[in-house]
Amino acid sequence: MSTDPALIRRLARLRHAASTRAVLIDVAAVLPLAAGLAVLSFSLAGGVPACALLIAATLALIASAIRHARRHDQGWLLHQLDAVCPSFEDSSALALQPEVPSSPLAALQQARIRNRMSALLASAAPDLRAPWPRRRLQGLWLIGLALIGFALLLPSLRAVLPAAVSTATAQQPSGQGTQLAAIRLAITPPAYTALPSRRIDTLDAKLPAGSQIEWQLTLDRDAEGVALSFHDGSRLELARDGESWRSTRVIDAATLYRIELRGAVALADDRGYRLDVIADQPPEIVVREPAQTLTVIHAAQAEWLLSFEAKDDYGLGDAELSLSLAQGAGDQLKVTEQRIKLEGDGDGRSRRYRQRLDLAKLGYAQGDDLIVRLTVADRREPEAQQTVSTSLILRWPADGGSLSEGMEGLVQKVAPAYFRSQRQIIIDSEALLAQQATLSPQRYARDADALGVDQKILRLRYGEFLGEEFENGAPHDDEHQPEKAAPDGLGRAEDVLAEFGHEHNESEAATLMDPETKRLLREALNEMWQAELQLRQAKPGEALPYEYKALTLIKQLQQAERIYLARSGLELPPFDATRRLSGERDGLIDRSRVLDPRSDDGSPLPALLDQLNGAGAVDLAPLLAWVKAHPETADPLGLLADADSLRRQPDCASCRRALAARLWPLLPAPPAAVDARRLPDAAGQAWLDGLSGARP
What we know:
Blueprint: H1 5-45, H2 47-71, H3 74-84, H4 92-95, H5 104-123, H6 134-168, E1 180-188, E2 198-200, E3 205-208, E4 211-219, E5 225-230, E6 235-241, E7 244-251, E8 255-262, E9 273-278, E10 284-289, E11 294-296, E12 303-311, E13 316-327, E14 334-342, E15 345-346, E16 350-358, H7 359-362, E17 369-378, E18 386-388, E19 392-395, E20 410-412, H8 422-434, H9 441-466, E21 469-471, E22 474-476, H10 493-500, E23 511-512, H11 515-536, H12 540-557, E24 563-565, H13 605-613, H14 621-629, H15 636-648, H16 653-663, H17 682-692
Parallel strand pairs: 3-9, 11-19
Antiparallel strand pairs: 1-2, 1-4, 4-7, 5-6, 5-8, 6-7, 8-9, 10-12, 12-16, 13-14, 13-17, 15-16, 17-18, 17-19, 20-24, 21-22, 23-24
């Protein structure tokens, strides 16, 4: 005989009722506390903490419901039935077994319990639900209502308490320092950062650049005026608002400030406070495809795949791909510009840009150069920052010429394609000068610096083509280096070449030029260096003469039709054997001056450190001027704060030590020194005396 379905449904209802009652008890206990704490959090810290607290309470109740559903299972139900119904004779589990026991006695007992259970549940089912904990719930609801009431009265208490404190301390002696009864800083980041506003109760803060700060200060006594004095000399007057003083200011750079009072005793804690600024970084661009900046193809190619990744700290703006197609040579050079807007895939702070260029549609042909750069802006306001990727060049070399019969080597044009854009730099410089009146100083300086980067690329590639290493304006040319002479009759010719020669390339590709061509190349390179120097200083007008001179020299170089790439190494100059063992010292280096003398860079830090290590007064004015002239110094606010502490407390030994510890890493590097020669011991001195012929 199987279990009655009606009996099973009645038992399920008992389990569900018990589980529901347990969940309702938890809700009734958690709800008042969660509501009270949420309202109090909203009043003190805003809506974000309050929402977080409500979400946590909801998750806790969901976990409680799951726990009670698992606890009130069939085993729990049978145990409760045996406890409240003696007539079941602790055999409730036997009644729910689907199989009939093999023992006649057990089968009889099963039938009896089933009948009793069906009759009891049909007439008067027992209540297995937990009772309501009324006293505990009443206490929790009173606590919740008290928290809500306190949160609602908190704004009024904030206005009353400072007045009460001021009244209580009005009779204090005037010699005691003024105290800040309440501090509140409201920080509102720029809208483009999408960061939430926040409120803090300290005078030190770290905030994004361009944030607006509202100071709300309450003093423990009355004052005629309150102002904030900043380390750059500016001041901000605070306006009275009831018992408080408040004002706002936009902070663009890190600063140090102090609170100054009028008509009241100065603050007891009269130290400087820091506002550290988190600068908005420009976007970062990584080129994924192609892997190298110069791609050379030797046959027709239908497409060119480009892939970039960009990210920004607050969000990316517009992205634009600029294409420059250089066609022709010399004065017949034609440059076509084109710009393509890119969307990209990803979120607001990180995106990937992919673009396939149809080369035939662009008119790309053999002998042309296609230069591509990606420009990505961020969302900074009022002026966005832009980052330009490295220039990617796709080159399809033109047909090389052939040498005359009987000549060995290869032939190529003097000026490769990437040297021909000097004219384009001149055009861009003149265009930038024409737009100077319409551009902001920051945008003007940034565009000039970008032109300087292009000029640097040309200069470096020019030096690479010349077979020299040019970097940072320091050319290393073999013609100006002292010659190395090999001993007469020692070694084979190729060994001497390998030991004393200086080749920048493989011997199969070493470039041979006549002295006049090399001179023109070197002069063009120097003019490019001067042009780059002026462009980096945002002076395109002063860079134009150098750019024109470099272009003129390049045009002179183009008068030479060809150069030759020899298949052998460099030729050494003839060795003068007549000077061997002659005692002539012409051209030798003076070994008595192996070190450069120490140069004074005018830094006031060494003298200031000497003053700090002494016992006299310390002149801090040169330090303040030095910090202003070196804004890139690590933690300048900390340096100014320590200097200000020493200025207010000249006899503070710990302030001297703290400032000296900050100055030590900033001292200029000392020049190289030579260790003194160690004096010989007795045996060594006897050996030296024996060499000199002296007798002890």
